[in-house]
Design brief:
CATH class of the largest domain: Alpha Beta
Radius of gyration: 35 Å
Number of helices: 20
CATH architecture of the largest domain: Alpha-Beta Complex
Shape: extended
Structural class: alpha+beta
Largest sheet: 7 strands, mixed
Number of domains: 4
Length: 690
């Protein structure tokens, strides 16, 4: 007989249908059901359903069948089907952690049949063990009950089959007998798996690192043993004593997608010991101490009490800009703007109609001069005027040689698209000096305002890092912006880029294309640059390589094409924090002017950062095509760690002082491999800030 607890469980959660008539019948059952599951319940003709209640009943019916199919797939050890169901349905839809009529969960069956691949797949999806197994004795008693009742049912059916004459009822009894014989074998296998299992071995590769001045991070791997049962959770413990007496805290991890844990709320400067133990259905295994055995929460800034470089800078700049505006707000030049409507309030859908207004002042062709063009794109489409032209406005038709200083000034203005009207009025006051530079920059502001007004969009996007030029004296400053909204704009013409490229009739020769033709030919490259320049690095500590080259009017910096807003780099490790002890070691190495670590040394072989730097430097030298022996003359920048938020930090690798910046005409014997470009330093700084 079932225990009273199991009877209550059966009454409360009678979810599982009777067992299949045979193993083959079981396979057919859940596979046939699987074909039905692939049709989502929302695909039915809802008009044929009477009322919301029937729709909900149908939904629950299919989810119930998916739950039954998951149990069948686990029992039949069909890993592919288990993975398919976990991918197709959420854990809630599958009732992943609701016991069946036997008081079992899918994870219970997987671990007691020692099916590690299925158990891991279930654990990754958030599966848990049955809460009814509060002790080893309760699990053993429950398995014995299942085996005994299955055996009793087999004996009863066998007696009925033997004693009854052959008929339809007898045939049904034979099917039931085969199904219960199969279930009897399953329960015996589960019972044997439980009895032969042992507690897990200790986790392996338990590594402790300093995550911040108040936290530590521990990472580890599964136990090496393959004979014990599947591990279903881990316990992380920490203490100020190597004997863990008294313990300070512990955390149980039952979400095993990533085997790492961050211990928060620790005291800076205090040593903490950490250990990790694993758990399976037989209980907790022995703990494994971390390597190193203890760590002290800290940050490199604690070495000399340095404040973050950017602390308060943004607020200070906003305050300074506010002060400048306050001084100018009572100027006569600002009076006309008080009654002007705010163009930033224009909606994109309304303002884009200006593209097709007869009075539009977009240019069709270029003559000798300086121009502004704005490229708006969405997926593989680009925004064009009613004449299938990329929007272009004139800046100055007498300006045939764009000075780098003017271009860099324009890129800085792109950080203040919302303040163009105010900047125009400020420059107007100063224009009395008749400075050619001020006149050019005032015309730039006028062109920006014209483009914003015609498009009805304030934000024109990011400035491409270099203007497009041709031999006819045309210069195009290009801005790029991706439109991510799904809104459909009225009267707006989005044209596929490939169609625009093939349909445009060039008025220039292939040998001497105009700036517009050059822009259209290279538009995909510019869009790719724009998208890549907005990508962020994953969290971690990186080793960056600083290489500059100078020209007459600018300094350029070497960057990778795949991430042009970041220096050439390789990842050192996933933990971005440099501890105080690690920074002290770096300072010591810099003070004695030791070469960068490219070869192992006996006294530093136990320093994890030293070993990580060795690997990173070799990888970086290969990346930028510099022989490893040359790296001995390189040095690590020891003034600070470059922090980009809380999740990304950089150590800089510098060439010898004479080679940091290549002068004009100077040969660089080590040319980087393909996949790199050089950006003007100011452009790079703007991109890095973004």
């Amino acid at each position: 007989k079932m225990t009273q607890q199991m009877r209550d469980l059966q009454l409360a959660q009678a979810r599982k249908p009777p067992g299949p008539s045979s193993p083959n019948a079981a396979k057919r059952l859940y596979r046939n059901l699987s074909g039905k599951f692939r049709v989502n319940y929302t695909s039915f003709d809802e008009g044929s359903l009477v009322g919301r209640g029937e729709k909900e009943k149908l939904r629950k019916s299919y989810l119930f069948q998916s739950n039954a199919a998951l149990f069948e797939a686990v029992e039949l050890q069909d890993l592919d089907r288990v993975q398919e169901l976990l991918k197709q349905y959420s854990p809630e839809e599958l009732d992943l952690n609701t016991p069946n009529s036997e008081g079992l969960l899918p994870l219970d069956i997987a671990i007691m049949t020692n099916n590690a691949p299925i158990a891991r797949a279930l654990l990754q999806a958030g599966a848990k063990e049955s809460p009814h197994f509060v002790s080893l004795e309760s699990r053993s008693l429950h398995l014995c009950t299942l085996v005994r009742e299955a055996e009793q049912r087999v004996n009863e059916l066998m007696a009925q089959v033997v004693n009854e004459a052959p008929n339809a009822d007898c045939s049904d009894k034979e099917k039931q007998l085969k199904a219960w014989e199969w279930r009897f074998r399953l329960y015996k296998r589960m019972k044997a798996g439980f009895e032969h299992a042992r507690v897990p071995d200790a986790p392996t590769s338990v590594h402790l690192s300093v995550a911040s001045s108040s936290s530590l991070q521990v990472t580890f791997w599964e136990p090496l043993s393959v004979n014990s049962a599947v591990v279903t959770k881990y316990k992380v413990e920490w203490s100020c004593s190597p004997t863990f007496s008294p313990p300070l805290g512990e955390a149980v991890m039952d979400k095993l997608k990533d085997l790492h844990f961050t211990i928060q709320g620790l005291v800076s400067g205090t040593a903490y010991y950490v250990r990790v133990s694993a758990y399976n259905m037989k209980g907790w295994g022995p703990p494994q101490a971390s390597l190193p055995p203890f760590a002290i929460p800290s940050n490199w800034r604690e070495y000399d009490g340095r404040a973050p470089r950017r602390r308060g800078q943004a607020e200070a700049l906003d305050h300074l800009l506010g002060q400048v505006k306050t001084v100018h707000q009572h100027c006569v030049c600002h009076e006309p703007c008080k009654n002007q409507p705010q163009s930033r309030k224009h909606s994109v859908s309304k303002s884009l109609k200006h593209l097709f207004h007869p009075g539009s002042k977009f240019l069709k062709t270029l003559k000798r001069g300086l121009y502004l063009t704005a490229i708006f794109y969405k997926d593989d489409n680009i925004l064009v005027t009613h004449e299938d032209q990329i929007p272009v406005v004139e800046i100055d038709d007498t300006y045939s040689c764009l000075l780098m200083q003017d271009f860099l000034w324009f890129t800085k203005v792109s950080c203040m698209w919302d303040e163009i009207l105010w900047l125009r009025q400020c420059v107007t006051v100063s224009q009395s000096s008749c400075s050619c530079i001020l006149q050019t920059r005032f015309k730039m502001l006028l062109a920006i305002s014209q483009m914003q007004g015609l498009l009805g969009i304030q934000d024109l996007g990011q400035v491409f890092f270099e203007p497009v030029k041709d031999k006819q004296g045309n210069i195009l400053i290009v801005t790029l912006k991706e439109v991510k909204t799904n809104q459909t704009f009225e009267s707006v013409r989005w044209v596929p880029i490939c169609k625009l490229q093939t349909s445009r009739k060039s008025v220039s020769s292939p040998e001497e294309p105009t700036a517009l033709d050059t822009l259209l030919i290279s538009v995909q490259d510019k869009l790719a640059y724009h998208q890549r320049s907005s990508h962020a690095l994953p969290p971690g500590l990186y080793l960056g390589y600083l290489k500059l080259c100078s020209a007459v009017d600018q300094i350029r910096v070497l960057v990778p094409e795949r991430l042009p807003n970041i220096l050439c780099h390789v990842k050192i490790r996933s933990n971005p924090n440099i501890s105080r002890e690690e920074w002290e070691w770096l300072q010591k190495m810099a003070s004695v002017e030791e070469p960068v670590p490219t070869e192992p040394e006996a006294d530093t072989s136990q320093n994890p950062l030293f070993q990580e730097l060795q690997v990173a430097i070799k990888e970086l030298m290969t990346l930028v095509n510099i022989p490893l022996q040359e790296a001995k003359d390189f040095r690590l920048y020891s003034q600070e760690v470059l922090d980009f938020g809380d999740q990304v930090s950089f150590l800089l690798l510098l060439p010898p002082s004479d080679d940091v910046c290549t002068a004009p005409g100077q040969n660089n014997p080590y040319t980087p491999r393909s996949g790199f470009l050089t950006l003007p330093l100011q452009i790079f700084e703007l991109g890095e800030e973004g």
